[in-house]
Amino acid sequence: NEYVDDIKSVAQYYGYDSDEIDCLLNNGFTPEEVEEMLYADDFLEV
After folding, report:
1. Exposure pattern of 24-38 as b/e (b: 16+ CB <10 Å)?
2. Fewer beta carbons below 10 Å: N end or C end of the chain?
3. Which class for 11: exposed (0-12), middle (13-18), buried (19 or more C-beta within 10 A)?
4. Contact 42/16 with Cβ under 8 angstroms?
């Protein structure tokens, strides 16, 4: 999915691994929610 790949690229820019994104997606978060967390800087609170 190109959208998820884009989110993973942005996450790497912020210092997060793509495995962390996969973990969130596998635990029920939507790509949109993951993207919002990255941009809102709430990623570490999950």
Report:
1. bbeeebebeebbebb
2. N
3. buried
4. no
Q: Strand locations in 1-46, DSSP E? A: none
Q: Which two tokens mark 45? A: 């609170």
Show me where the domains of the chain are located: 2-45
Q: pTM for the complete prediction?
A: 0.80
State the pLDDT at residue 27: 98
Q: From CA 28, how far away is CA 12, in angstroms rounded?
A: 21
Residue 40 Cα distances to 1, 34, 37, angstroms: 23, 10, 5
